[in-house]
Design goal:
- The protein is built from eight helices and 15 strands.
- It has two domains: 139 residues, Rossmann fold (3-Layer(aba) Sandwich); 102 residues, OB fold (Dihydrolipoamide Acetyltransferase, E2P) (Beta Barrel), CATH 2.40.50.1020.
- The protein is α/β, with parallel strands linked by helices and 256 residues long.
- Helix content is 34%, strand content 31%.
- α4 packs antiparallel against α6.
- It is elongated, with a radius of gyration of 19 Å.
- It has a five-stranded parallel beta sheet, sandwiched between helices.
C-alpha cells in the first residue's frame, strides 16, 4: 500500500532519524514534507492532504495537538501519529484508539507496529472525527505549560537606534529572513531573533500565529473576515495594513 505522509519534528536529528527509519520499514511510503515547526506542518498537510502525519507534541508555536485539531478541516482524512517523550499522553492516545503514538527514542519494532495500524486504518476509511476531537481536547488540557514567564519587553533596532518595546504595544510580528520585524502603532523595528524562536517566548493567550510568517496580538485586532477562498483577513486597530490568515489557520483562529 502506497500512502503519503508528513513528518513534523523540531529537532533536526530526530526528524532525520524518523524519516530514515520510516523509509526502512515502509519502503513505499511517500514522505512529502519534513517540517521543523507546527505552522509549516499545518500548511504542508493542507497542501499535500497526506494519509498520515507524524507530529511531535511539543513544537515551537503550534503544538502537534493544535495541528491535529486544525487538520479536521484542513485535511480530514489524515491519520495522526504523535511523537512524544511524555508517557501519559501516549497512553491516553493509544487507549482512545483515535491515534497512535511513538515514544522517543523511537524503536524500530514499535514503529513497525504503528505502520501496520496506520495501514489497517487507511483501508478502513476516514478517522473517527468525534473521538479524535475529544482526545485532542483532553490532551491539550494536560499539556504542561512552559515554566518560563512570557516576554514583557523586547530590544529591537531602528536603523542605528536601539529601542525598548513593551510586548503589549506590538500589533504583530513578521518573519524577515533570519530576523523578525516588529510592528507597532509608531512604526517598525528589527528584532534579531527568528520568529520560530520568538513563538515560545510569547504569551499564547495573547499572541497567535495566523500564517507561517506572522504572529498577531489579539488585543490589536479590530475585525476578522473570511473571503471566498477560505483565507481570513485581519484588520488592525492601530495600523492601516490588512493581515492574511492562511486557510489552514482559520480553524485555530475561530477557536480562539
Amino acid at each position: 500500500m502506497s500512502l503519503k505522509c508528513v513528518i513534523a519534528e523540531d529537532e533536526e536529528l530526530l526528524r532525520t532519524a524518523l524519516a530514515s527509519l520510516l523509509r526502512e520499514v515502509w519502503p513505499h511510503l511517500d514522505i512529502v514534507a519534513e517540517c521543523e515547526d507546527g505552522a509549516s506542518a499545518l500548511e504542508a498537510i493542507a497542501e499535500h492532504q497526506p494519509d498520515v502525519a507524524f507530529l511531535d507534541i511539543r513544537m515551537p508555536g503550534l503544538t502537534g495537538i493544535e495541528v491535529a485539531r486544525a487538520m479536521s478541516e484542513a485535511s480530514p482524512r489524515t491519520q495522526v501519529v504523535f511523537v512524544t517523550a511524555y508517557d501519559q499522553y501516549a497512553i491516553d492516545a493509544f487507549e482512545q484508539g483515535a491515534v497512535d503514538y511513538l515514544l522517543k527514542p523511537i524503536a524500530r519494532d514499535r514503529l513497525l507496529a504503528t505502520v501496520q495500524r496506520v495501514q489497517t486504518r487507511a483501508a478502513a476509511g476516514h478517522p473517527d472525527a468525534a473521538t479524535l476531537d475529544a482526545l485532542l481536547r483532553h490532551l491539550s488540557a494536560r499539556l504542561p505549560n512552559s515554566s518560563k514567564p512570557p516576554l514583557v519587553w523586547i530590544t529591537a533596532s531602528t536603523g542605528k537606534e536601539t529601542r525598548l518595546i513593551m510586548v503589549d504595544d506590538v500589533a504583530y510580528f513578521q518573519a524577515d529572513n533570519k530576523y523578525t520585524t516588529v510592528m507597532t502603532a509608531d512604526g517598525e523595528a528589527l528584532l534579531r531573533t527568528p520568529i520560530r524562536e520568538l513563538l515560545d517566548a510569547l504569551d499564547p493567550n495573547t499572541f497567535k500565529q495566523i500564517h507561517r510568517s506572522t504572529i498577531v496580538n489579539l488585543k490589536a485586532i479590530a475585525s476578522v473576515t473570511r473571503d471566498d477562498t477560505g483565507k481570513g483577513k485581519v484588520k488592525l486597530k492601530t495600523r492601516p495594513e490588512t493581515l492574511t490568515v492562511s486557510q489552514p489557520f482559520m480553524t485555530l483562529f475561530r477557536n480562539m
